Amino acid sequence: MLTGESHNIEYKQNWRDEYLKWVCGFANASGGKIYIGIDDNGCVVGLSEVKKLMEDIPNKIVNFLGIVADVNLLNDNDHDYIEIIVYPSSVPISYHGVYHYRSGSTKQELKGGALHRFLLKRLGRTWDDLPCEWATFDDIDKEAVAFFFKKAAIAKRMAGNIVDDDMPVVFQNLDLVTEDGKLKNAALLLFAKRPSHFFPLVQFKIGRFGRGDDDLIFQDVVEGNIIQMGDKVIEILKSKYLILPIHYEGLQRIERLEMPEDALREAIFNSIIHNDFTGAPIQLSVYDDRLILWNEGRLPEDFTIETLLGKHPSKPHNKNIADIFFKAGFIEAWGRGVSKIITGFKQDGLQAPKFEATMGGIMVTFIRKVTPPVTPPVTPPVTPPALLDILGTKEKVEILSDLFRTQHECSSKDILNAFNLKDIRYVRETYVKPLLEAGILALKYPNVPNHPKQMYRLVIPI
């Protein structure tokens, strides 16, 4: 009896052509061995027509998959069985147009985003490396570029006068354009005047919660280019969400953030660098006793949370973005970010943050030492002119006011019907989204913007 199946060993009692899917899966992963003539318990049961199989199997692997595998005839106690050794392929392999992948001890059929990520990886690319076909240099914010070079010069990782060059030359030197001169996705995320024009969910959402996840007290949404996003988030946290306890060293008054700022900044920058910008916004939930930071994006292949917590190589989800953040002095190389975060909190006498892979992303929980009072920031009342800018007419202001006076929570459909309109998408883009951005409305389910039962609450009286 042989050992059991594993991530690179598969047993099949008889040969079937559908097992070419398993060969395909091994080739697309890290390779492996398939044994024909062995049952699931690892017992050799033998094969008939071995000579024919020894001819058919190699030919079918070549003809249907375009790869070569070693096919060996083995014997155990007068029972013949076949060993197929599959080597990892450097190019994507499909079987009848379908891509299979060996993960753990199972075979998966790759579809959607998983297939997209797999194909990019096999081609040595990341999503941020792809060209944005309709973007031009007119979409680039020169002030954001200047901000980057100022930071890079301070960090002594680039010369500050490079920004004086022509913009195409600058971006070519930063490896942010393709060989045919197209701006990469990374270039637009980092430096575009309006990144949301190209990628609608380039947002960092901060929410202050009370007793539970459904008790959202107030929130902020940080938009714009990601090269300046981290600094904006930190400033908002310091001004509205976190505490700066006061103490004295001699006669000097010291105000220091309740958490180690460098470590918190590192975590925020990492969430931006490793975020999947085709998915949900980055979210930071602030509670009395903890902060929870979540960004969409999976761990690198063969990584676990334990790998992340130990010494590990740097494998950024977005390599171009990571390179720019490194040049700006925002992060360190060599995969030291997690270690820096944990060390910073421990040195401040705080509990080490907890890292989890969950809900298709990475979640980091920071425990707070102090329990602040929950007091919403003072928000100036919304004046009729501000509402008129969004709704367009006084009649719609009155209709919306009456709607929320009779209903505590309303859906997009409720607003659609109240305004006597027919296009739900138009209502969301023209009215709901601007009202959310202005802080007039708030989501009932802020952590799941596309929740099927999403409702809106009136935050500021109209």
Automatic annotation (TrEMBL):
This is ATP-dependent DNA helicase RecG. Residues 399-458 form the Filamentation induced by cAMP protein Fic-like C-terminal domain. Keywords: ATP-binding, Helicase, Hydrolase, Nucleotide-binding. Residues 5-110 form the Schlafen AlbA-2 domain. The lineage of its organism: Bacteria, Pseudomonadati, Bacteroidota, Bacteroidia, Bacteroidales. One of its GO terms (molecular function) is helicase activity. The keyword Hydrolase applies.
